[in-house]
């Protein structure tokens, strides 16, 4: 895996991923930015949420659950002093589908947290407290 990060102006950077995608990161005006893109720590946050969401959906589909939707609502708290690392993350999964088994959703969330999501496991091993919750929505 590789990426190239090029300074653009102020606090704006162009990110080119090894898979060929481009993202612009930037900061707020008060820090010299123009708010042209997400903050780097926001990208870390959404990376964790996307990684875990992928796991949850994949595990449920392999378990032959009729998943129709999965939304991960993720919130982070950061320490007050630099480096302002994440102190706590909460991931709340809203999984929708037909005849979903709540225990299977709970198991998928746990397996992602404990075994499969490299992003969240890496952060938790670094001292970030990560909590998970979920709800199941039945679709007719």
Automatic annotation (TrEMBL):
Where does this protein have coiled-coil stretches?
none
Q: What is this protein called?
A: OsmC family protein
Q: Which Gene3D superfamilies match?
A: 2.20.25.10, 3.30.300.20
Q: Which organism is it from?
A: Microvenator marinus
- Which NCBIfam families does UniProt cross-reference here? PRK10738.1 (NF008009)
**InterPro entries for this protein:** KH_dom-like_a/b, OsmC/Ohr_fam, OsmC/Ohrsf
**SUPFAM superfamilies, per database record:** OsmC-like (SSF82784)
